[in-house]
Design a protein that fits this description.
Radius of gyration: 22 Å
Largest sheet: 7 strands, mixed
Helix content: 40-55%
CATH topology of the largest domain: pyruvate-formate lyase- activating enzyme
CATH class of the largest domain: Alpha Beta
CATH superfamily of the largest domain: tm_1862 like domain
Shape: globular
Strand content: 15-25%
Number of strands: 18
Structural class: alpha/beta
Length: about 500
């Protein structure tokens, strides 16, 4: 069968520095393309963003990057047997539905929707499936897409109903929901993502990514899922709190393959929680060193601070790790308890000091505006940020809590939103947004002041990096990206 795989546009909330507009390379879709190819299907990719990333359209409060709707439709092969649409990010929800409806109007082929199980800015299709079914989706695939999509395609070919878990569809007008029962654990058996059929050079030419970017790169998933149960996160629902690691050998085999195939030496690790096993982390490092691979690795989506110590970090430095993100979330123990999040404040300060000493760049992420948070809790966060700066943290990121479908917090904190595409980490629709935004702005300003006070040379280096585009932390890259995007839009309007 000939399968068309579609990665939607990238959407940026105007003047947002906190999570939108990031060009996540569609690794879920690339894994699926590779698996289907292995099973004998022909995969045709339309990377709506990747094929035209510098094409930017202003629409209300958002910038939309990538191909226009008619361009997408013209690229779909007339002889395609099915279309797979990647429901990648919650901010893309309206665009995802628009693409789906347009395909169903113009083509009489089944459309399968798959979800993003690798990002905190994805969303659970189990929670929003009605929107996709009413817009014409034939099947919605939950969790790991590889085997489930293959089985759905096989059933379509033989005109039978698939007998698998983790799918939603209609049968004779009746909605059928089969929840996920099985999470794939044999990840080593999966073929590597099929980046050869994606426009990866266009991503490199952007000069910005999810991680501070120096050169050509590829994302890397060393595991799936997370064993933790944070209230604000979609992972517990979408991964069943099961952490599924790949073997160290398999991970390093992939790294070595990309070194040879694409001459890639920079890798952005996008796992939810890659360092759950200390021994596995060290074994990956030892395998890299054993093969004498010269690589740069960055943990960009965060990892749990308690799972790494000085011994682990020492091995990581030797193997080429240059950037590690951790997630304190709050300086208030009361808020951590409400978030169902464990965090060791003193341990984090200790490892941040050590990372600064051996020159690994570090980031600390916080969630503010969680239901029940008080001014006292916010002040505790402020104090802890100051302690992190003293310890040598290189950057911080503050996200205003938004109730993403799939998170437990979404069940009790609707907070008044009306449109899923407005669920960003700068939720202007929230009644408390102005106060929270003011607090966030003040913290960033104080962070810069504290950094100048305790580590002035680091701040001078940050300014130099922005001017020369030699990004070492996300804050440098985010500022450059957003300002450049707005300048381009102003130039276009004048022309």
């Amino acid at each position: 069968m000939k399968i068309t795989l579609i990665n939607p546009n990238i959407v940026t909330q105007k003047w947002d520095f906190s999570g939108t507009g990031i060009p996540f390379m569609p690794i879920t879709l690339a894994y699926l393309a590779s698996y289907l190819r292995k099973k004998g299907h022909e995969s045709f990719v339309i990377d709506t963003f990747g094929e035209s990333p510098k094409k930017i359209v202003s629409k209300g409060d958002f910038f939309i990057q990538g191909l226009g709707l008619q361009e997408i439709l013209r690229k779909i092969p007339k002889d395609t047997d099915a279309v797979v649409l990647y429901a990648n990010l919650v901010i893309n929800h309206n665009i995802n539905l628009e693409i789906l409806r347009s395909i169903k109007q113009q083509f009489s082929v089944p459309v399968i929707i798959i979800e993003n199980i690798h990002s905190v800015v994805g969303y659970s299709l189990l929670k929003v499936h009605d929107d996709f079914l009413s817009s014409g989706a034939d099947f919605i695939v939950l969790s790991d897409p590889e085997i489930r999509c293959f089985e759905v395609l096989k059933s379509l070919k033989h005109k039978k109903i698939p007998k698998i878990d983790g799918i939603i569809f209609r049968q004779k007008g009746k909605k059928i929901i089969r929840p996920v029962k099985i999470y794939r654990k044999d990840l080593d058996s999966l073929p590597y993502p099929a980046w050869d059929i994606f426009p990866i050079r266009n991503y490199w030419d952007l000069e910005y990514a999810h991680a501070p970017l120096k050169k050509s790169y590829l994302p890397l998933l060393t595991s799936r899922g997370c064993p933790n149960n944070c209230e604000f996160c979609i992972t517990p629902l979408m991964s069943g709190r099961i952490w599924r690691p790949r073997s160290p050998k398999n991970v390093v085999d992939e790294i070595e393959y990309y070194l040879k195939r694409f001459s890639i030496s920079e890798f952005h690790i996008e796992d939810f929680n890659p360092t759950v096993s200390k021994q596995r982390t060290i074994d990956i490092c030892k395998e890299i060193l054993k093969r004498n691979l010269r690589v740069e690795l960055k943990i960009v989506a965060g990892t749990k601070a308690e799972t790494i110590d000085k011994e682990t970090i020492s091995w990581m430095k030797k193997a080429g790790f240059s950037y590690i993100s951790i997630s304190p979330e709050s300086g208030s123990k009361k808020m951590l308890k409400m978030m169902n999040k464990n965090f060791d404040y003193e341990h984090a300060l200790d490892i941040v000091k050590y990372m600064a000493k051996i020159k690994i760049f570090s980031q600390a992420c916080f969630v503010i505006g969680f239901p029940g948070e008080t001014e006292e809790d916010l002040n505790l966060t402020r104090r802890y940020v100051k302690e992190l700066v003293k310890a040598g943290i290189d950057e911080i990121a503050l996200f205003i809590m938004t109730p993403i479908p799939g998170s437990r917090a979404c069940n009790y904190s609707q907070l008044g939103y009306k449109d899923l595409s407005n669920l960003t980490f700068s939720p202007k629709w929230r009644s408390a947004y102005k106060e929270l935004s003011r607090f966030r702005t003040n913290i960033y300003a104080q962070f810069i002041f504290w950094k100048f006070r305790y580590h002035p040379l680091k701040l001078i280096r940050n300014i130099f990096n922005v001017l020369t585009k030699r990004f070492e932390i996300k804050m440098e890259m985010a500022l450059w990206r957003v300002v450049r995007m707005h300048i381009r839009q102003m130039v276009r309007r004048r022309l």
